Amino acid sequence: MKSLETLGADGSHWLSEYKDVHMNVFGTPLRVLDHGLGSHVWDVDGNEYLDFLGGIAVNSLGYAHPKWVAAITEQAGKIAHISNYFASEPQIRLAEMLIDKAGAPEGSHVYFGNSGAEGNEAAIKLAKLYGRTMPGALPKIGGKQARIVALTHGFHGRTLGALSATWKPDIRTPFEPLVPNIEFATSGDLRSMEDIFSSTGKGRYGKGPVAAVIMELIQGEAGVKAMDPEYVKGVRALCDAHGALLIFDEVQTGIGRTGEWFAFQRKDLSGGVVPDAVTFAKGVAGGFPMGGLIAFGASLSALFTPGSHGSTFAGNPLAAAAGVATLTAIQNEHLMENAEDRGRQLRDGLEHCGNPLFAGARGRGLLDAVQLSHPCAHAAANWALEHGLIVNAVAPDALRFAPPLVVTAEDVDACVAVLTKMPTDLKND
Ligand SMILES: *Cc1c(COP(=O)(O)O)cnc(C)c1O
């Protein structure tokens, strides 16, 4: 693989400066990027790439979308930041749009944060407040702390609360002990979920009732693995039977990515199940940092009261204006239809390209992956990069695709053409 060190003088100069001043949490950057347009991006040495990662499902409108640029520019010239002692028009409009797009019931409310992890932090805190209202739970005398259930292979972020609900042992264990009373059910196995709901063991803080289940409908970081709708229906039924909340983490799947505003609106993912709360982030502001939580209905929303939660930047007008522009363009430019069509084109192209390296494509809309016949995803992503295509090794044996929702049919053909030529004898380091 060619890292920046083997590139031209310009790129390698930036790389050594990068290393001098940044903590090494992301490894060595592959390139130093300079500018982009649509689904195309250029590095500081002038090399062009077709971007099928989109900043990991963030750049919904691609790079430098004129409406998005205009919205941010105009807002920056008016008012960029205010404290939460005040409100701004874009923040109110975006909250209204999100509630509307989610089809959330009358009385639903939004909390804005700045990232996916922060959306999930808010959800976990809300679930904890909800837990305290349940029969048998704190703060009653003799009450026990309610529990939260997450799924194996799930990913919810890296702040300590979100990390507590994130499964991957490598990234969890160095930071233990984490938030107590979060338990993991085996993903896709309803019996495992039932066992947790019915367990009443002694647990360090006592095994109280289950307050909430938090889960993804497509486990993105786990390799783009879709849930079985029958399983989701079963989880909903368990939550209903026990009075627990069902929270969908739609940080990666939300805001048009799977061909609907939210993945739960796809029956082939949710089986028609409606959650009690949804978290969102990545694509919501088209590349501006923003995330948050939609609580469905008035009573759940009312659990947060002044002081329960907050952030200095929450609902920042610039981020909110970027969000309004992003949702408006997704609507007006029919980008969810495009996500559905281009996603199918991509998966069909990969299934029929004749390269034996590819053993099946999966996903919905423009959140997709291709299974590799052997574990060579890192080598494959590096090979693609050298051939002008950005994709991501989401698992040792799978590549992930999350291109901008504006990606064209020609872009998809070009992506498939590069991958078709990929050598079959690649190996991971
Ligand atoms: C990316 C992601 C997060 C974390 O979002 P950050 O903005 O990186 O904090 C949480 N949940 C899911 C499903 C994600 O894909």
From TrEMBL:
Pathway of action: Amino-acid biosynthesis; L-arginine biosynthesis; N(2)-acetyl-L-ornithine from L-glutamate: step 4/4
One GO cellular component term: cytoplasm
Coiled-coil annotated residue ranges, if any: none
Compartmental location: Cytoplasm
Enzyme class: transferase
Keyword flag Protein transport: no
Biological-process GO terms, alphabetical: L-arginine biosynthetic process
Top-rank taxon: Bacteria
Positions bound to N(2)-acetyl-L-ornithine: R158, S311
Hydrolase found in the keyword field: no
Record: residues binding pyridoxal 5'-phosphate: G116, A117, F155, D249, E250, V251, Q252, T312
Cofactor(s), by name: pyridoxal 5'-phosphate
Known catalytic reactions: N(2)-acetyl-L-ornithine + 2-oxoglutarate = N-acetyl-L-glutamate 5-semialdehyde + L-glutamate
Co-factor binding comment: Binds 1 pyridoxal phosphate per subunit.
GO molecular function, one term: N2-acetyl-L-ornithine:2-oxoglutarate 5-aminotransferase activity
A Pfam entry, by short name: Aminotran_3
Stored CDD domains: OAT_like
EC number: 2.6.1.11
Predominant localisation class: cytoplasm
Keywords, ordered alphabetically: Amino-acid biosynthesis, Aminotransferase, Arginine biosynthesis, Cytoplasm, Pyridoxal phosphate, Transferase
Family indicated by similarity: Belongs to the class-III pyridoxal-phosphate-dependent aminotransferase family. ArgD subfamily.
PANTHER family per the UniProt record, alphabetical: ACETYLORNITHINE AMINOTRANSFERASE, MITOCHONDRIAL, AMINOTRANSFERASE CLASS III
Quaternary structure (record): Homodimer.
Miscellaneous section: May also have succinyldiaminopimelate aminotransferase activity, thus carrying out the corresponding step in lysine biosynthesis.
This protein's name: Acetylornithine aminotransferase
Gene behind the chain: argD
